[in-house]
């Protein structure tokens, strides 16, 4: 981390560079260049980890946390869209299902985070994050595993998307239920 902790290198800068690299996955996937897409997906995720580590070293900011999560969610949507463009006949329905499921996981994630912040609900397990959120069955690591598998076995992307989308809905339902109970319990106090 010391290598990156230099003047001129900022967590927000790493976030933006990582996102710019990640955006290349869209044309690479659309063109069927799956190994090139895999490389930029992994570089994006590496820079996403490094921006967070540098931010924790220098001090987390709300602006940086907002930028990071916003660009992460956009990145997570562009990868399935790339697979859809690569083989619309094969991937459109499954990719659409996956994007629909990502809306569920993303909205339940962000809605709870916003209300937890409003009501000052803390979770010591997430002290190193910009905000408190509910975990789930399908989070960042699992999503990247899906993308890696899709790049390595593109003919199987539709199957991966159907299955992962179902797991995302399990995450959404558990987050909505748990978030509802947590907020309801907090209101009673």
UniProtKB/TrEMBL annotation:
Q: Which UniProt keywords apply?
A: Membrane, Transferase, Transmembrane, Transmembrane helix
Residues crossing the lipid bilayer are 16-43, 64-85, 97-118, 130-150, 156-178
What is a single cellular component term in the Gene Ontology annotation?
membrane
GO MF terms here are: phosphotransferase activity, for other substituted phosphate groups
Show the Pfam families listed in the entry.
CDP-OH_P_transf
Q: Cite the InterPro entries for this sequence.
A: CDP-OH_P_trans, CDP-OH_PTrfase_TM_dom, CDP_ALCOHOL_P_TRANSF_CS
One Gene Ontology term from the biological process aspect of the record: phospholipid biosynthetic process
Q: What is this protein called?
A: CDP-alcohol phosphatidyltransferase
Q: Which organism is it from?
A: Escherichia coli MS 85-1
**Lineage summary:** Bacteria, Pseudomonadati, Pseudomonadota, Gammaproteobacteria, Enterobacterales
